[in-house]
Amino acid sequence: MSQLKILLDESDIPTQWYNIVADMPNPPAPPLGPDGKPIGPEALTAIFPMPIIEQEVSAERWIDIPEAVRDIYRMWRPSPLFRARALERALGTPAKIYYKYEGVSPAGSHKPNTAVAQAYYNQQVGIKRLTTETGAGQWGSALALAGQMFGIEVRVYMVKVSYEQKPFRRSMMQTWGAEVLASPTNLTNAGRKILAEDAASAGSLGIAISEAVEEAASRDDTNYSLGSVLNHVLLHQTVIGQEAKKQLEKVGDYPDMVFAPCGGGSNFGGIAFPFFADKAAGKQVRLVAVEPSSCPTLTRGQYAYDFGDTAGLTPLMKMYTLGHDFIPPGIHAGGLRYHGDSVLVSQLYNEGLIEAVAVPQIVTFEAGVIFARSEGIIPAPESNHAIRACIDEALRCKQSGEAKTLLFNLSGHGHFDMASYDRYFSGELEDYDYPEEAIARSMQNIPKIAGA
What's the average model confidence in pLDDT over 46-51? Predict the structure, then answer.
């Protein structure tokens, strides 16, 4: 029989995280303070533990994974790699399609790969509480789980539109002991300011980050934890791509193209960065970040220094941005509704080393349904973006006759997103192609940094 699942043993769980900075042709642009000058690691100690800060600024190629973290990874890692033979038949394509399935984690997504690591390092330095933000709830669920494992209280500021759209992810967080608040709230200065301007604000990841950072910075027993964007977060996710490479080696294959959804960058970085190591060594592989056309950060944003949050509490980071006060439409892929992107992903895209495409909402759900009806797994709305781009490439192969090998990251299941699928089937979903003039207005407010 033709193999469908390609599995690894628990002993094959990576022992180190891969740091792409070591293989980038140029060092990452440094974070800046409000005065436009580079900041040192000490500026981050108010909200992060020192081991995390050291990883954030490291240029070492390999960073050891603590055994306590690897031991917890064994609950779901190594995750399976599937050959999507049924999807290939449904599309009639000569392409070979593989997908790495991260929905096998307890939280149902790739997010625990970093949540467990971050909770571990915070516990090691005596932190009792963590604050964070979440969009669709995958990250909040993962941190709630990790907090429970390490005896840390977790407060989650959940973007209000997702708080209302995804009630069962909220229930997951509460089951694991987290407190969940609909952001913007009246508990922080950042939240009160937004509500004063718009009492009905649907919120955004930028606003929720502002609230979580503000609270963490005001309490000695509390740190902040982020589920995407920052270097250390993408570092932790590289277990995905490392495993995928081993699994493909087992069947004597290697991808021509790798696809992943991209909001803040952790999903994309997790699977694509380990393949970039091969690309840097001369291997031909295309790495494609897939984003929503309603929040087209890489494809229509500006490469500039901007805040990572709406209130301007974070350091300035050089990234593709739509402006820190950009409020995206309430699409159902809540994890991709972010105004900025990872510094590392942004720099790689700016230097032409990776690719990016933007896809509308309705066709992503169409792709998710095609996938579910052939492969059986119902994907999260975020994952549907990678599936859409992969299917489009497979159909191009059908036209050209090329037998490419395609790999995508199925970053989570959609069991708590069925209301979104209901809206798709009833024809209630809309495509939001964000107006150029709205992006231009938002971009007017990014900081003006001399020489940057």
Answer: 95
Tell me what the mean pLDDT of segment 215-234 comes to: 95
pLDDT-above-90 percentage for the chain: 81
Of 344, 358, 318, 331, the C-alpha closest to 446 is: 318
Poorest-pLDDT segment among 9-18, 36-45, 134-143, 331-340: 331-340
**How far is it, in rounded angstroms, from Cα 296 to Cα 313?**
23
The answer to whether residues 34 and 60 belong to one domain is yes
**Bridge-partner residues for 409, per DSSP?**
100
Token pair recorded at residue 49: 């533990």
Statement: residue 65 has pLDDT above 70: yes
Helix axes 361-375, 418-425, angle to 10 degrees: 110
- pTM metric for this prediction: 0.95
Residue 441, pLDDT > 70, answer yes
Whether the per-residue pLDDT at 1 is higher than 70: the answer is no
Radius of gyration of the chain (CA): 20
If one counts the domains in the chain, the total is: 2
Residues 180 and 101 in one domain: no
Residues 283 and 425 in one domain: yes
User: Are residues 224 and 212 in contact, defined by beta-carbon separation less than 8 angstroms?
Assistant: yes
In a domain, 33, yes or no: yes
Asked whether the predicted pLDDT for residue 451 surpasses 60, the reply is no
Confirm whether 450 is domain-assigned.
no
Q: Is 38 helix (H, G, I), strand (E, B) or coil?
A: strand
The rounded mean pLDDT for the chain is 93
Same domain, 244 and 376: yes
Under a CB-based contact definition with an 8 Å cutoff, are residues 253 and 403 in contact? no
- Tell me which residue of 316, 408, 422, 284 sits closest to 365, measured CA to CA: 422
Backbone angles phi and psi of 208, in degrees to 5: -65, -35
Residue numbers of the domain that contains 194: 22-66+111-231
3-state SS class at 95: coil
The half-sphere exposure of 8 on its side-chain side, counting CA atoms within 13 A, is 24
| CA 103 to chain CA mean position, Å | 14
Q: How far apart are CA 342 and CA 385, in angstroms?
A: 18
User: Residue 188: which CATH number?
Assistant: 3.40.50.1100
At residue 260 the predicted structure's pLDDT band, cuts being 50, 70 and 90, is very high
**Which tokens hold the place of 245?**
């490479």
Of 231, 251, 278, the last residue of a domain is: 231
